[in-house]
Specification:
This protein is α+β, with helices and mostly antiparallel strands. Helix content is 27%, strand content 34%. The chain has eight helices and 22 strands. It is elongated and about 115 Å long.
């Protein structure tokens, strides 16, 4: 009996000892894990003041490298669609010669159609049917003909006789946000510095600026404001978002201030581009009004107030608008049920129509609303 008792006691001691050993082993593992964790942590005093782990720091570096690679590849792809435009075939040097950019007519363009359609500023290419010279990324120069031009928005399309060109990817300029990173590409001061890339942010949208030329006032509306560096030769070049999509065409720089430049939203000409790429022509329709939105009206008549629509400042003689009975002072609220807040809204919609199409306008006249039908004419 005593022997049995002794054996049972030994078994209990072994079990207890085994539990203690396991407990000590687990405790030791926890202590070692904590020490290793403390060693891997980098505190604010060692770096810049934040409790950041080495693992997280390495991850951040990898993310930055990945993003930089993406931007590099994106810029390289867009660059293949950027061209030089000049009014002089052998432009030679620019800043290294006695001739300046204005006399050479140097500027930038963007390939928007694989069959040779190039988007640029109207002040770079000239008016419709005028000639210019286009230099592609391979350095070859081709004769260009202006097939469409609109000085109101300073945009034009040039055609060269080439096929299978690398086209740019167009984005949605209605979807941009203030603070978004953008890149401007162009030939800032001539061909020696062609396809220069500068970066910045979108500073504002829907900007309106006033010009005075030869005693006459004019306005450009719905502009994208950016602080990306833009110089005269950048005109006609793309403003690109971080996804490699073109959201605007660089056009204007305020010379009296640094870091203030403007681009024309790409959406304003998408319908024109689509028409040329699909039909190899653009049969432009016209309503025949000169109108302002509420952002511009402050320049003209600060006492005139309205909350929505666009204000008709002039009705062209023998136009679709005059024949429909539209008058100066009318406010167009909608077209075919689409609300109008900016002149660009009306222009973009008319670009989707053809001469002879009928549109329904809801207008406000003397504080009363009415509907008017207008048959669009060829511009």
């Amino acid at each position: 009996m005593n022997d049995y008792y002794k054996q049972d006691r030994k078994k209990k001691l072994k079990r207890d000892l085994k539990k203690v050993v396991i407990f000590l082993f687990v405790f030791l593992i926890l202590i070692l894990s904590y020490i290793l964790y403390e060693k891997t942590q980098v505190t604010e005093s060692n770096l810049s003041g934040k409790n950041v782990t080495v693992e997280r720091t390495m991850q951040t570096i990898e993310e930055v490298e990945k993003n930089n690679k993406t931007v590099t590849e994106m810029i390289a792809e867009v660059n293949d669609s950027v061209v030089g435009i000049s009014k002089v075939k052998n432009s030679g040097s620019s800043i290294f010669s006695d001739e300046n950019i204005a006399s050479l007519g140097l500027g930038t363009g963007l390939i928007v159609g694989e069959n040779g359609y190039i988007l640029t500023n109207a002040h770079v290419s000239g008016e419709k049917y005028s000639k210019c010279y286009v230099t592609l990324v391979d350095g070859k120069t081709y004769d260009g003909s202006v097939v469409w031009s609109n000085t109101d928005i300073d945009m034009a399309i040039v055609k060269i006789n080439q096929k299978n060109l690398q086209t740019a990817t167009l984005g949605d300029s209605d979807d941009i946000r203030v603070g978004e990173t953008v890149y401007a590409i162009g030939n800032p001061i001539g061909y020696e510095f062609q396809r220069t890339v500068t970066s910045g942010i979108i500073s504002a949208v829907n900007r309106t600026i006033k010009f005075e030329e030869e005693g006459e006032e004019s306005y450009m509306e719905d502009l994208i404001q950016t602080d990306a560096t833009i110089n005269p030769g950048n005109s006609g070049g793309p403003l690109v978002n971080s996804n490699g999509q073109v959201i605007g065409i660089n056009g204007v720089k305020i010379t009296s201030a640094e870091g203030i430049s403007f681009a024309i939203p790409i959406n304003s000409v998408k319908a024109v581009i689509d028409s040329f790429n699909t039909n190899e022509k653009f049969d432009e329709a016209s309503l025949g009004v000169f109108a302002f939105d509420k952002n511009v009206l402050g320049y003209i008549n600060e006492n005139l107030k309205f909350s929505e629509g666009i204000y008709i400042a002039r009705v062209n003689i023998n136009s679709a608008a005059s024949e429909a009975g539209l008058k100066q002072g009318d406010i167009i609220l909608t077209i075919d049920g689409n609300k109008l807040e900016r002149m660009c809204d009306l222009r973009c919609y008319i670009y989707t129509k053809k001469p002879g199409d009928t549109v329904t306008l809801r207008i406000q006249r003397n504080n009363k609303e009415m509907e008017i039908l207008a048959s669009l004419k060829r511009k």
